[in-house]
Amino acid sequence: MARGRLNSGSKAEAELPKAKINSQSLQKVAKLLTYIKPYRGKFIAGLLFLFISSLVGLAFPAILGALIDAAQDKYKYSFLPHSITLIGITGMVLLFGQAFISFFRIVWFVQVAEKSLADIRRDTYFKLITLPMNFFANRRVGELNSRISADLSQIQDTLTTTIAEMVRQLVIMIGSVVLLAIVSIKLTLAVLAILPFLIAFAVVFGRFIRNLSRQAQDKLAESNTIIEETLQGIANVKAFVNESFEANRYNKILRDVVNIAVRGAKFRGVFASFIVFCLFGTFVGVIWYGSVLVHNHEMYFGDLTTFIMYSIFVGAAMGSFPDLYANLQKAVGASERVLEILDEKGEDVSINAIDNVVKQKIYGNLAFNNVVFAYPSRSELTVLKDISFTADAGQRVAIVGPSGSGKSTMAALILQFYHPQSGSIYFDGLDADEYALTDIRNQVAIVPQDVLLFGGTILENIAYGKLGASKEEIVAAAKKANADQFITSFPEDYDTIVGERGVKLSGGQRQRIAIARALLKNPAILILDEATSSLDSESERLVQEALEVLMKGRTSIIIAHRLSTIREADKIIVLEKGNIIETGNHQELIANEQGLYRYLSQLQFETAQS
Ligand SMILES: Nc1ncnc2c1ncn2[C@@H]1O[C@H](COP(=O)(O)OP(=O)(O)OP(=O)(O)O)[C@@H](O)[C@H]1O
Fold it and tell me: Which residues form the ABC transmembrane type-1 domain (predicted)?
């Protein structure tokens, strides 16, 4: 019956919203069910075995009744042997047969569910990572991740248990009602007159209680967000001595959780007491009426036992439907959400690495032609307004400008993370749209401001630039990137684990790893997003040296924060509020007394001196 969880603990899938089950939603689910297709043989066999084992289960009340009657030398069923022992043996044989069949149906259902779910998971993950950047800009990634895993678990549960349980309970319920009528039509009518009303009441009241429990769960989820956020930003909490502020915030929300849970508990108490009273009242009534029939010799005692067992079957089956139906609704909702992702249009990247190899070589000539761009998530703010510039193969072009002027956005456009609203980007004189997306990304490398290292060894982290690179190639790249020395100073050398659970590397060391990665990738065009935080002078020298090696022979776009590092650039583009306001080399720009470049240079020079 409605087992609304009213304590504030919550399972992930308990929070999943339910969807309406109608022809439209079922059509969508059917699309997801195509994932079962490769395993349909096992699935159908499992359903068949389930059907058989449920039918066999229906025989037991009759056999138990027959055993009890046989004890009094009464044999009602002609198809059963007229001997207590033989009836007992028949029961045992059926039981064994049922156990045997159940084993296979459970194994097959789990196999089908696991395999098809793995396929859905693989496709969803691949679709997710090939979705355009804009998809991620509008969503909280953590939320997306937990939502998808909860949705997929719900679908998995439904495939492994809910569908099987529904079929089983349906067979048992229909079978039991038929068999009840055969045993005693009078008693059957008495039971059927009461049970549906009781169950309808339980469903309606149960739903009300579930709503209350959902409110408690939502509040609890809100409180968990506080924990998550504060733990992620623990350094901020400590630095601002805001521990008591956070503790109070958390405490307040916890009090709300308790209030809602306690209010719900009162309703739950009323509900449970009423149901227990009515349900057991019904059974007491049935047994009373049955005893009267037995007493008047209108019914055997064994029949009464059989009858009571079938009534319990019917009650349990009816009671299980609301939960099973709710599970099905959640699964439909979950399927719809997973399908939404699967139906999104991903970028043109193939799951087979072989399809992504470079088909059209880029030599490094880059041009922006009247590029206008606004982020799709903030379309009212034009970030780049009519940007035009060229970078010839092998040139170094620096982009400078105040914070928020659009420098990183230009890098994102070169990497084709977004597309300009108007204007074009050209590689070797050809519009970017004429290249395969992977061709561009394979031949452009970025050394970002903040280098993210994956959990794994240093070797694997460098190899990310060229999967399948040999150890010699990796070490050679690390040497050129001035990284070999610090790597070999670790006891585990290139096998040192870095990332969240491994050794923490300094900013300069991480940058040199990123440079080694980029060297290994050997791109035609290089984007350097210079770190804003300055390194100590030794580290700075090592990084700068490595960058010199990296930039040699390639087009380099340097997003510069420290103007001292770009004096040698062939061209400097000064950006302000999305417009190019000056272009030239260092000498030319510094000569412009009213220019922004000269002003910014002086500002940095004075700051450095002071
Ligand atoms: N993903 C995004 N979605 C919406 N707006 C964005 C996004 N990324 C950046 N912006 C906005 O675009 C503008 C330009 O940002 P951008 O990061 O390109 O500047 P920047 O010159 O690189 O700044 P900084 O020197 O601080 O890194 C800013 O107003 C910023 O708020």
Answer: 44-330
